[in-house]
Amino acid sequence: MEGKLNDRGPGPIDDVRVLFVEDDPAVAQMYKLKLELDGYQVEVAPDGEVALTMARSEPPDIIFLDIRLPKLGGLEVLEALRADPKTQAVPVVILSSHSEKELVERGARLGALDHLIKSKTTPAKLAGGVDGWLKH
Q: In whole angstroms, how far apart are CA 9 and each of 61, 95, 132?
């Protein structure tokens, strides 16, 4: 069966792979720790180019994506993910400090499921939303 979303059921979530794209190591570590405590497998990409390479080599179940990234910006990463048949269906949630209307709208047009603001999103809130985003 293709993908893990349909065959997961109510069982353990430790087979859910999260790609967290964030260039600030302290921020990445804070969210990574909470997600791992909740049973998710988490990989961190420090820039947009690494994120694309990681996502294409082994597509994760969900991606949390910052907008302002070194080498390749988050919206460019999202555009590339959507253009690639291997990653076009991977759920992407933007997690950024930036909430300008045009950024939020462009992210939505490119298929982001949500646009979260870091200052308003605790690691617990983020981890608690994963199941809902995976069902999209």
A: 15, 27, 13
17-43 pLDDT, tens digit each: 999 999 999 999 999 999 999 999 999
* Each residue's pLDDT tens digit, 38-75: 999 999 999 999 999 999 999 999 999 999 999 999 99
Other CB atoms within 10 A of residue 3 CB: 11
Residue count (the chain): 136
For tokens 């460019």, the residue is 76
Question: Which one, of 119, 118, 120, 92, lies nearest residue 106 by Cα?
Answer: 92
Separation between Cα atoms, residue 11 and residue 65, nearest integer Å: 27
Tokens of 5: 């979303």
Task: Report which DSSP code applies to 88.
Answer: T
Question: What span, in angstroms and rounded, lies between the C-alpha atoms of 25 and 6?
Answer: 33
Distance CA 1, CA 73 (A): 33
Contact 65, 86 (CB under 8 A): no
Q: In a 3-state reduction of DSSP, which class is residue 125?
A: helix
